[in-house]
Amino acid sequence: MLNRLVLRLENLFFSHRGLVMVAIALFTAAMAFFAVQLRMEAGFEKQMPTRHEYIQTFQKYRKDLFGANRITVVVRARHGSIWTPEGLTRLYQVTQAVTFLPNVDRQGVLSLWTPNAFVNEITEDGFRANPVIDGTITPSQVTPAIVARIRQSATNGGYIGTLVSHNGDSAMITAELNERDASGKVLDYVQFNHLLDEKIRKPFEDAGYEVQIIGFAKQIGDIADGAKAVLSFCAIALLLTALAVYWYCHSVRFTVLPIVCSLTSLVWQFGTLRLLGFGLDPLAVLVPFLVFAIGVSHGIQQVNYIVRELSHGHSTMEAARSSFRGLLVPGTLALITAFVSFITLLLIPIPMVRELAITASLGVGYKILTNLVMLPVAASFFNFTKAYADRALEKRERRSAWLRKLARVAEPRNAYWVVALTGVIFALAVWQSRDRVIGTLQPGAPELRADARFNRDAVSIASNYDVGLDWLTVVFESAGSACDNPAVGLFEDDFASTMKSEPGVVSVQSYPAMLRDYNEGYNEGNPKMNVVPIDSGNYGGLSAEIGRIKGYMNKDCSMTAVHLFLTDHKATTLNRILDDVKQYRASHLMKGVTIRLAAGNAGVIAATNDEVEKSELPMMLYVYAAILVLVFLAYRDLRAMVACCAPLTVATFIGYWFMKELQIGLTVATLPVMVLAVGIGVDYAFYIYNRLQLHMANGQPIVKAVEHAMLEVGIATIFTAITLAIGVATWSFSALKFQADMGKLLAFMFIVNLVMAMTALPALAVVLERLFPRRTPVRAPGLLSH
């Protein structure tokens, strides 16, 4: 039935090849119209796994807690101190500029110049809160005497280390961003990043003052700017691929053809994304070009098949039709496997990852048409001389000569040794990769290099301020009002005290800490009164004062918060602190009080890491299940299932080991690469095993069948892997660290999968044939039985 279907498709496409090419050209033109409208889009909300416990906590109390989506701007005097009239004037100007940026929550802007920065003072009339800088003072009125007074107020208010650096050379402004404006329009982070440079950095940074900016908006904007360089590196990879293909086939037409077909599917992919209303996320910008690599891989196999048929004396039409028949089954199986691999990314309930899954799946799905239909049909229009065919045959024989030695892995004695060695490597890779990290392994923005401006700013701010740049908010929910029950404050205070000593915690800000400070202030600054009051009346009165400050409690006092400011958001730091919080939650119980994790930007990152970790194993199991099912449907042989999948599994764990050694964490950016590696590995396995099965069906013994299979597709497979590895290796020079890491990882995985396909797969096939002899003749795969 499958044979008849493919023969019908062959006759349909090649009998109407002109019409097919015109239809493809028209569709490509239409998709190109929409593709050019595709824009890079980022979103803070898209990073969140909405169903996760941490994100539900964050969403429930986001209006009452510190916003996780904030920007931090620091004005630093390059020489001397910020405590000068000029320094405070510059701080005022930057504060005003930040306040009036679009999508900034103006009530949430905090600076020495904003009225929400106040000093609590004890007077004869009681407790009084005065702004650090009086509202009647303007920058033009700032004199050295007023500067000294402001400095004293900032010191008394506890703002040294929070709004002013310890060495006094800089001051901080923080602002929370609303992702949607009043009309519901979503913030364009790429454009907003440019606005930060144009409105904040360029006007106010000069020889006297430096302006440092960090936050999600700045980070994702810098990544988007760096992602534009992806095009140049992909162009380099494209050029290297074209030169290599030309060296392989010595034909300009065969060089251009697979590249044009892969680019065509890229146009279709971008156009469809635009029609679906998606943009291209900066963290997913590599995915279309990874799919492009899959297309080139299949294209080279098609060229190899056609050139081989030409060298046997067939016409171009016959060679193209033969290529269509011979590669439709293994090519479709490989692409369907890659399609399923990317679709499994939908298991991760993060909107950005799901968009990525759709992006990648569209690209792979279109490859079935462009690489398995368009390419051979287009090739049928070419005409080649007998001399070219003879030269192609001569080159093929010359290049394949050394493969006869490699094919000796199929000799029974060698095969057992190769399988045993593969088993040892697999065990070692599993052992070495057992403690690989889910999440980031570097502080700052791991997508950017350590010397990037964003990371340099982040390091500078973290080293000069007590408040860490990453914070984890732990919420205490009370059945009643926490403001009427001192026991809640005492319970929370014990938790905060315990967390202060945890490695990775820079400082702790909390509701009970505020109670302590206010209680001391109301008692004439007596340090003995720096405790949580146990008198309910006093306790409730202080809570009312704290309620004026955002971030520590909600209006009905059913929620109070502890903010843990961290040294960084590395996975090891987050996991250790989260484990400690969970352990405390399990061992310290209070009736009517629930400890909930977690808000803050570290809570969002931790939730993302958790979802990636939870989804990884099921996702990989689904991918391998799909591969096993497809292999069985194609070959109806359990030996084929083991021979194709076992080497792939070994390569995957070697990849995990490689990631661990290079300190590349498994994140939403690296996960698609590992999925792609599985797809590429399956490509190699299907093409080799397909020829092996054919020769065995024609009566050849397994050892000879392996030799012929490797002679026929081995050179194309080796050539494809090395060419693609060299191309993506150029990404190592990218300004984006995650692109450089992906280049190294991809290049490594291309080569590892190649080695596994050319050694472990044939050796395993031989061992399985000897251990489980066949009782019936080998069945030719698909159409190849003709």
UniProtKB/TrEMBL annotation:
Membrane topology recorded in Swiss-Prot or TrEMBL: Multi-pass membrane protein
Main location: membrane
GO CC term (a single one): plasma membrane
Gene3D superfamilies tied to this protein: Multidrug efflux transporter AcrB transmembrane domain
PANTHER family to which the protein is assigned, alphabetical: MEMBRANE PROTEIN MJ1562-RELATED, SSD DOMAIN-CONTAINING PROTEIN
Domain (SSD) ranges: 259-381, 650-767
Residues passing through the membrane, by range: 20-38, 229-248, 283-307, 327-348, 368-389, 414-431, 617-635, 640-658, 664-689, 710-733, 745-768
Protein name: RND family transporter
Keyword Thylakoid: no
InterPro entries named in the record: MMPL_dom, Mycobact_MmpL, SSD
Keyword hit for Chloroplast: no
Organism: Trinickia dinghuensis
UniProtKB keywords: Cell membrane, Membrane, Transmembrane, Transmembrane helix
Compartments in which it is found: Cell membrane
